[in-house]
Amino acid sequence: MDKVVSSAAEAVADVASGSTLAVGGFGLCGIPSVLIRALLDLGVDDLEVVSNNAGVDDWGLGLLLGAGRLRRVVASYVGENKEFARQYLAGELEVELTPQGTLAERMRAGGTGIPAFYTATGVGTQVAEGGLPWRYDSEGAVAVASPAKPTARFDTVDGEKEFVLERAIVADVGLVRAWKGDRHGNLVFRSAARNFNPLAAMCGRVTVAEVEHLVEPGELDPNEVHLPGVFVHRVLELAPDERDDKRIEKRTVRPAADAARTEGA
């Protein structure tokens, strides 16, 4: 039952090139940065990543992207990474953009054994009808486009409506970061850092969690556990410097003149 491993290298040692990874986090909030760095050091490539986004140019998944290790990305938002945009437009990276709520539900469904589900999101758009550019060629033409998805009509409280079928996501490996966890893999996330982490953990066939604070079994109140250990296979306790190394994705400050006027009001 003790799932703790001694190092990040050990935690990801069996991740193979060509694997599909589900990675928790939102921007740089709650990302498994230590495990991502370990994958970079491991040297695996040709990876498909399912995550809300691809980090920034010099941190998070942006490190794997910049090193040319990613083949395909399934994400909701990619606006903070210039290298991501360059690779996508140059035909070096395949990208499946997915509505954020749909992406979350696809991951949750994969973790609970639901193969597919119907949703109203995307009906009447290219999300359902197909034609979204997944990959460009070197000349800027669309080389791979999204396929059309099955639709069906169902009765709702507002009458009959059309829905589109979305397939669940099951990843080879889930990588997540938790605020607190025990040796059995029960995890607690802190505030907004919960984000996509439970979902990424659920849909991984093998899930590795880096935890900021490791506690003994029984120390966590069961009512506080956000993700039960049944979904987690390995736990990595972070060192203090690793725990505290958290980047700010975008820093915004007011001009000094504006701040002075506000304080004097």
Set down the secondary structure blueprint.
Elements: E1 4-5, H1 8-11, E2 20-23, H2 33-42, E3 47-50, H3 61-66, E4 70-75, H4 82-89, E5 94-97, H5 100-112, E6 116-119, H6 126-129, E7 133-136, E8 142-145, E9 151-156, E10 159-167, E11 171-182, E12 187-188, H7 197-202, E13 204-215, E14 234-237, H8 240-244, H9 256-264
Q: Quick check: average pLDDT? A: 94
Overall helicity: 10-25%
List segments where confidence is low: pLDDT < 50 over at least 5 consecutive residues. Answer: none
* Largest sheet composition: 9 strands, mixed
CATH superfamily: Glutaconate Coenzyme A-transferase
Helix and strand run: EHEHEHEHEHEHEEEEEEHEEHH
The CATH topology comes to Glutaconate Coenzyme A-transferase
Level-1 CATH class name: Alpha Beta
Instruction: Tell me, briefly, the overall form.
Output: globular
- Treating each run of at least 4 consecutive H or I residues as one helix, how many helices? 9
In percent, how much strand structure appears in the residues?
25-35%
Based on CA atoms alone, the radius of gyration comes out at: 20 Å
Number of strand segments: 14
Task: Tell me the CATH architecture.
Answer: 3-Layer(aba) Sandwich
SS-based class = alpha/beta
What is the straight-line distance between the termini? 60 Å
Count up the domains: 1
